[in-house]
Structures
1.
Amino acid sequence: MQFVGTNKGQTVKMSGSVQPGSWFAGSLKYKIDGVDTITLCGDLTTQQTGNGPWNVTKALTSTQGPKFTKAGQMVTQFYGDALTNNTKAAALQLAIWEILHETSGTFDLTSGAVKLDSTTSNYASLIANANSYETAASPAGDAWRYISTDGGFQGQMSPVPEPASLAALGVGAIALLRRRKKK
């Protein structure tokens, strides 16, 4: 897995007890097994060192416990919407960090261990969108979780394509093969 760069998102200032400071919140670009992939960070407590490459394992979030199950459902359900602009991408990232790292039981980003500092640009929109993602997520969907086997890498998450998308890709591939054969 190789880090390529940032995608949609913004710098946010965190003031809770979990990793206070300024961080990029949003989607990231990685090359995974030679394929360009857009991910969301699933690990606020580990700082990435360098651009890789890293050896990683891949697991379904539904096999990683209830917090990762909920985070994976948010990734799968809101990934497309979140990648439409920087504020939504940052808000989904914040919601994921909140679900995975909050210890107080309060999921609102205005208090507790994962707290967004009120001086952050677009503060009100980030809070509103993150809260919306957290409360609207239904118990459906799964995401991939990429976990480093050699350190220096933040765990990442990306949606698992649902069967309909995979079927559409298969139909498209068959159509292309038929078209090639006719020529």
Note: Helices lie at 66-82, 86-101, 123-136, 163-182.
2.
Amino acid sequence: MSLLVLLPTLNEAGSVRIMLKEIKELNLPVVISDAGSTDETVAISKSENVPVIYRNGKGKGYGIQEGIIYAIENNFTHLLVTDADNTINASEIKKIEPYYNKYDLIIGKRVNNKLPTRSYLANKLLTYLVNSLFDEHFIDTCSGFHVFNLQKYSGALNAKNFDIDHEIICTALAKRYSYKVVELNYTPRKTDVSKANIFSLIPVIQRIALVRFFKR
């Protein structure tokens, strides 16, 4: 079993260096999937000798799908995806080590959860929808932290933007993949500006319903 860490990035120069250093301290390979950062994100990654994937589209979904291709081409069996903003510290990755090769999907659940109000409400809404449609009991479906079996997810994802996070979870539920929820300490950004608004939530809601009713 071999694990690759993927960080989808867009202008994360303020946090990406510490993330990369801490991941490398865990002796884990890591790759950046960048959406055209205009700050020093790519330069910092290269200075840390980390491979950079220049994704074809700006959305997070593009980044994860291209990360899957990269991981498979380089003979990895599992992919860990987490945000590069250091809200979930890289040291938390150690918590998944006993589990990732036993389950098809590991889902991060944030604790110490001091989310900005809009993010908190978005998480409540989307988690409620997943629980209602799939008869589950999740607390947090919006952490952005996932570890999955590449054999199961190769060719399984279509989302191009932030709806990818819920497509990953809902695909596991629809296809009855094994999964485990792991609690992870969370620290909010010091200057956190939520990207969640009613318009950004609509594609996520559509994706959840699409997977529930059409992906089996």
Note: The CA atoms of residues 32 and 52 lie 5 Å apart.
